[in-house]
Amino acid sequence: MIAVLIYWNLLSIDDICFFQKIHYQKDRYLDTMDLTIKDLIGMILLSGIVILLEAYDIAILYYLVILMMLPAAIKNTKVYQEKLKITKRIMRLFALIIILDITFFCLSLVLWEILNQLLMLFMMIFHHFVFYLYIWITDPIETSIRKSYVLKAKKKCDRFEGIKIGITGSYGKTSIKNLVYDVLSMKYLCLKTRASYNNEMGITKTILEEMSDQEVFICEMGADHMHEIEDLCTFVEPVIGIVSAVGPQHLSTFKSIENILHEKMKLLESLPEQGMGFFNFDNFYLHEQEMNLVCEVTRVGLHSAAQLKAIHLVCDHLGSQFDVMLGDHLVHFSTILLGEHNILNCLFAIGVGYYLKVDPVLIQMAIACAKPIEHRMELKPFYKGMCIDNAYNSNPESARISLEVLKMMPGRHLLVTPGFIDLGELHGYYSQVFGTQMAFCEKIVLVGECSDIVTGLKEAGYDMENVAYCATMKDALILMRTMIEEGDTMLIENDIPEVLMNASEKKA
C-alpha cells in the first residue's frame, strides 16, 4: 500500500505542475486529459484480471502495473518539478491531496479486497479524472480567495490618481505595452503590468504589490472568453484605450472572430467622454467595424487612411526607419525592432506619448532605444547563423508577419514550428494556409503532429525532402544545429508546451 501511495503522489505532482503550467484553468485541464479508448480498454482488462486472480496474490499484479508505469511518472515529474513554483494555491492543493490520500488509505482498509484493488487501479489509470475532482473540490475556495484579492485591488486602483491606460488585442499587446511604457517614462513615473500577466489575477498582483504614487498605469488586458475585457474595464477603469488588432486566436473558446471583435471593442466602448481611444485601422475587422463611442478615437495605420500614419518606411534585417507627422512637424524615427508590424506597434506608443504631451525628441529617443521582448521576434545568434525567436506565442496573423520578416533576412531561411493551438474548428484550415506560406524556406522542422501543415506544403509544391519531423522542440533545436550554416537565419515560430500539442489536434 505504501508503494501505491508513493506512486500516486508522483502522478499528483505531475498533474499539479501541468495545472500550474496552464495557469490553473480547469477547463483547459479537462480538454487536455489524455484519456483514450486504449486507457478504457486497459482498465477493463486489468479489472478482469484482478477478478480472475482473486484466489491468488492480487498484489503481484497490482505492483506489476506500478512497475511498468513508474519510470514514465518519475521522468515526467522530474521535468515538471524544475518549473513548479510553490505558491499558496499549490500548498492548499497539496494539503487536499494529502487529506484525500489518507482518506483513501483508511477506506481501503475496510473495503472488500477486490474493490480495494479496483479502486486503486482506477486511480492510477484515470489519475487525470481524480485530479480534476480535486480541482473541482477546491474551486469554490480558490474563487472566494481570488475575489477577496480582486476586491482589495479594485479599491486600491480606484484610489489611484494617475492616468490609466488599457491595451488589448488578439496580438501585439505586450509589445505595445512596453513601447508605451518606454515613451511615457521619458516624462512620467509609470507602472505597467508584469510580463504577459494580463488576466484578472495578473493585474491584481501588479496593483497590490507595485501600485503606489505613479503617474501612469499601463494595463495589458487579455481574454480568451466572452465578457473578460468588459470585466477588466470595470475593474481598472482606463481613460485611454488601445486595440492592437483582431484576428483568429482562442477560437476554441470564442467560437468566432465576430465574438473576438465584440469583446475587444469593449475597451473602447468603456472609455469615458474625456478619454481617448487608439485602434489599428489597417486591421480588416477593426477597419470595417462601425463605432458608436462617446470618446474621441485615433485611427493608427501604415497602409490605410489613418489619422496617425507612418510614411517613408524602410525595413530590413537591421531594423526600421520611418517618418510620422506630429502636429505640424515631420519627425523621423528609427528602431532595431524587426518588421512592419513593429512600426505599427511604435505608432501606438508615439500616438499616446504625443497625446500626453511628451516631447517628440524624447519620443524619438525612446523608440530608438526600445529592445525586443524575450521570445517575441528577438534576433539573436544561433551556432553558425542567426535566430529569430518568436517562440512565446503564435496565431495565423503573427505567423504570417514572422515569415515576412524571415524573408528579409540574408542567407538561407530555416523554420522550426509546432503549429498553432486554440483555433477550434478552424485549426486545420489555418494550419494548411501556414504550410503554403512557409514554402519559401530552404529547411523546415515540424514539431509534433503537423499533418495539416504538411498538406499545405504539398499544395505549394514544396520538396518534402527538406522537411524533418521531431517529437519535441528540444529535439528540433538539436537537429537545427546540424542544419544551420554561416549566414543562415532560423525562425522559431511558437513553442507549444508538449502537454498541449495533442489537445490542439483533438480540437481540430
Plain-language structure description:
There is one protein chain. The strands form two sheets. A nine-stranded mixed sheet has the order 2-3-1-4-5-6-7-8-9, sandwiched between helices. Strands 10-11-15-12-13-14 form a six-stranded mixed sheet, with helices on both faces. It starts with a helix and ends with a helix. The model is unreliable at 70-82 and 497-508 (pLDDT under 50). The protein has three domains: 2-143, no CATH class; 160-369, Mur-like, catalytic domain (UDP-N-acetylmuramoyl-L-alanine:D-glutamate ligase, 3-Layer(aba) Sandwich), CATH 3.40.1190; 378-507, Protein-Tyrosine Phosphatase, Chain A (Alpha-Beta Complex), CATH 3.90.190. 41% of the residues are buried. The chain has 508 residues and is α/β, with parallel strands linked by helices. The protein is 53% helix and 16% strand.
